[in-house]
């Protein structure tokens, strides 16, 4: 067996199952799951109809490159969304089966397993980044999110000896779990580092369409603003899962540096990750429609307006820049660690939240997720409100003296 598999940690939700082992909440209260970031608004009917109208695609093997129609649709969407020239559909865009598998596969494409390189990751982070680094034969290096910097990563603290060995850097904006959005100056810093040391930037932007004010700045958009035509060493990842409430569709794309896309296509041809023509047709319909996305955003915004004032009376939490998460500090008000809080909340209130320490690693003397919880406001409004009210009531009962 591949010995690198032994280096992988359990996924956060496996840790959560172990944390909850032996607990049996009162079933009459009804379980409310605010722990998993799975969109639970209904999938739009027109996407369902597009699937059923193109079932003949199931009788053919799809091409890894995807259809010209899908790539052209994605290019047009990128141009509209980020006010940039449309990327070349033939060389700068590649459909993927959502963003998760692509984030993993890119590392296997660009890392030299004999090179003993470094993959720089934000901390807290999406665990796929770590697994991709380890199984690609590299070492992850974690840069802690700083609450004093709106949870930005301070890359000035990374030693030159680390940058010299870095082959790939993952960034997530809007971030999971903090919701922080990178600024143009932060992008400029990353691009300067990439130019100096030659590493590739993987920009995870799967939460880009869940925002409350101005649309978040994207990696390609930042590159164009800074005169980086051709997007050197930059690949962005996007998905319909959050934008269109279709996580089961497994539809996304990568876009950016044509040279990297060319090698990524070669890898994926062997990897067997071609998107069904049926899903491609539904994806074209989804990327071409913005009305359902605006309605989706409005629904999230209403939930935040209702939930945040209640939660702020109980724990330390602020409005995120974007995404559908609340990143709350719970120890100061309750005296409980994040794992203790999650376990007792489940036992007493039948509400699931995710301990922040499960989303981070001990790095530079701290785990930046410790004593925080991630709350995903993904359920329907009434269920989210009930969950928040139960959390607030739980805190009142356990408030630290």
Automatic annotation (TrEMBL):
NCBIfam families: DapC_gpp. It comes from Oxalobacter aliiformigenes. GO terms for molecular function: succinyldiaminopimelate transaminase activity. Residues 32-377 form the Aminotransferase class I/classII large domain. It comes from the Bacteria. InterPro entries: Aminotransferase_I/II_large, DapC_beta/gammaproteobac, LL-DAP_aminotransferase, PyrdxlP-dep_Trfase, PyrdxlP-dep_Trfase_major, PyrdxlP-dep_Trfase_small. Keywords: Aminotransferase, Transferase. The keyword Transferase applies. Gene3D superfamilies: Aspartate Aminotransferase, domain 1, Type I PLP-dependent aspartate aminotransferase-like (Major domain). The keyword Ribosomal protein does not apply. The gene is dapC. Its cofactor is pyridoxal 5'-phosphate. This is Succinyldiaminopimelate transaminase. Its EC number is 2.6.1.17. Pfam families: Aminotran_1_2. It is an enzyme of class 2 (transferase).
